[in-house]
# Entry
Amino acid sequence: MKKQFRYGLTVAICLYANLLNAQTLQTYSGKYEGGEAAYTYKTASDGERIYEGDFRYTNDPVRITGRYKNDMKDGLWMYDTGKGKLEVHYKGGKLDGPYRFEGEMPGLKDVFSDRDTSRFELSFIMKDNRVTGDASVENDGNTFVGHFDEGGYADGEWIYNRSWRTFRCLYKNGHLQSFSYTNSGTGKTDTLVYNNLTHIVPNKIIHLRDHLESLAKHGWIPFESYSPTLEQEMPGNTIYWQTEEMPQYPGGWRKMLDYIRENIQLPSEYFWGNVMGWPRTVVEFVVESDGSLSNVKVARSWDSVCDKEAVRIVKSMPKWIPGKHNGKNVRIRFVVIVSYSHLCY
# Structure
């Protein structure tokens, strides 16, 4: 009996010693994923390391500092690439708290253009790996501010100040309700402008997610990817402003321009230098799910004769290739510029 007791006591002591050893923090300093790292950890019963405490990593010029709690990132983490600095907060391994980025990040699209790299500043709040709350962006004197709801979708008014223009978009849970821009020089406000400007603010919201998803893809941060719903709700149906597959004229943009040039009909006084400036009418319409065009109207006028002809031309167009959302044909609002400049020469 005494033997068995002593044996059992020895086993218990060994198990306790192993458990105690597993809970004792150990330190590692050396090679780590192409660079050098120093961190503290505990050893699990299966021999795996459980990160606990401070963590530092360097791989010139990249420097990363942060802290783990029970093998999950917790608190403030700082990333420095040499060209950009990122500060994020974690809670239980998830992004939760202020998010700030300043500088350049190679491989990421500029928030305000299609350049691959650009210097900019981002500031917003993260919750459960999603962007939420107030957000602001600054780039080369341009500013872009707005708000994301709890689901991570644009909500309320978004304002984009760019040189002499101020763009305003009103969102409701990711759905674009209205769009306008004001010319700061003239004070004039238009509710709709031609296509490349119509989509400029919605695209910037997508670029914010692109920024996060790019960092997540490179293993820098976790981020819950989700599909932005940049659309305008209409009674009984939905008209989208932008989808992953936009509609197009059969044969593409150049074929559409050829169609306009070949079919336009205007009085002789509109030919050979009698039209001054940059004559064009902006026409807005809806590309239906079957490719037909509806709700054709003038979004920006030139004069009554040209406007009437521009609407006629668009209405006479053949069916378009419809746009798609989540693999299904949908109704999409589109804008085309009908230009008359070729008549002036």
User: Anything to note?
Assistant: The first strand starts at residue 26 and ends at 32. The mean pLDDT is 77.
